[in-house]
Design a protein that fits this description.
By secondary structure, the protein is α+β, with helices and mostly antiparallel strands. 22% of the residues lie in helices and 24% in strands.
């Protein structure tokens, strides 16, 4: 008896594929990055945990060449650039953005070569299991945790460790006191950008690009790229004390939670957030009005941040000397303080346009 050959009818709900003709080479190549995206990629990839900002600071310094009248680094490590205004009656304005990023610092290495560490900044332990930490010398450590008696939904900081694949403490490729940042590759797709340290580095790029677009400014503008922002906004206060500006505006990431179960009103693609208050500061009323007026005059979209969460550089600037009129712009970022921060290009663009409007206003 011969087997009767049958022909299967095409599935009603699933397409058929010609596997023989499919090829990975047929996939569309990724689009080339724009010059601004390339800048963001360089800044995002740069090593710069709190207290170790030198590499990213030098990247920003290189971008400022030809844009500033003066560039210097203060004793704290802040990068301070001055652009002199034209005309009489000009004010001294300070713009600030953070250079540093969250990370970890090695505090102990046991006999088997595993390292314990402290957090540098607001690192969420729930985001660390299996993540990678990169040290300044290029060494990569895998973040693990003790499993004996561990809860499935919680991670105790004391139970975390770094694994270098080292057989002993003597063979460890890093020493106690070494700092590391979390690794995450930069990507750009459909106006969305994501990468590690993206919120802070995009804030720095906003200041650089603002200066590129403004041929002339109405005021003396100091761009301060601050250090140790993630561990208490230490650099910003020192810079504000020295400069004693008439006005200050901080640009920094703000938590966007426009995802299932989020508890923030900020959303990607809806414009920068004009900050009413954050965890440490109630923004100066005069500075808020300047930002609101500039946004409305240019018909730019904006959001209002009124949640008292996520402090930044504003508080120590505002409290310097006898007090400084201080406002803040929040750049909406999803998954803040993780290796995969996400931002929207339109929010970055509108932040730049808003700052250009502020700096062009001779009536401040």
């Amino acid at each position: 008896m011969t087997r009767k050959e049958t022909q299967r009818a095409p599935a009603a709900h699933f397409p058929t594929f010609d596997l023989a003709s499919a090829s990975l080479s047929d996939a569309a190549p990724p689009a080339a990055l724009t010059p601004f995206q390339a800048l963001l990629k360089r800044l995002s990839a740069a090593y710069g945990p709190s207290g170790s900002e030198d590499p990213v600071r030098e990247l920003v310094r290189a971008e400022l060449k030809g844009l500033a009248d003066q560039i210097r680094t203060d004793a704290f490590g802040n990068l301070i650039a001055l652009r002199k205004g034209a005309g009489s009656g000009r004010k001294k304005i300070m713009l600030a953005a953070p250079l540093d990023e969250i990370g970890v610092m090695v505090t102990f290495i046991d006999a088997r070569g595993f390292a314990r560490f402290d957090m540098l900044g607001a690192v969420n332990p729930l985001t660390l299991l299996g993540a990678r930490a990169q040290f300044e010398n290029g060494v990569i450590g895998i973040l693990g945790r003790e499993t004996r008696g561990a809860q499935r939904t919680e991670i105790e900081t004391d139970a975390l460790f770094l694994d270098f694949g080292a057989p002993s403490a003597d063979a460890s490729p890093v020493q106690v006191g070494a700092a590391a940042c979390l690794t995450g590759e930069f990507r750009a797709a459909d106006n969305f950008l994501y990468g590690k340290a993206l919120g802070g580095r995009a804030s720095c790029a906003v200041l650089v690009e603002t200066w590129r677009r403004l041929k002339r400014v109405a005021h003396d503008v100091y761009c301060v790229f601050t250090v140790q922002s993630a561990v208490g906004a230490r650099g910003a206060g020192a810079a504000a004390f020295a400069l004693q500006p008439d006005l200050a505006f901080v640009v920094a990431p703000a938590p966007a939670q426009d995802f299932p179960g989020g508890n923030s009103n900020l959303a990607l693609g809806q414009g920068p957030a004009i900050v009413i208050q954050d965890e440490d500061m109630v923004a100066s009323a005069a500075a808020r009005q300047i930002l609101l007026r500039a946004a409305r005059r240019a018909a730019l979209p904006y959001q209002i941040q009124a949640h008292a969460t996520h402090g930044g550089d504003g508080a120590p600037i505002q409290a310097a000397r006898e007090g400084i009129v201080t406002g803040a712009l929040g750049l909406p970022v999803r998954y803040l303080h993780t290796p995969s921060e996400m931002a929207h290009e339109s929010d970055i663009e509108n932040t730049i346009e808003l700052l250009c409007g502020v700096l062009s206003d001779k009536t401040l």
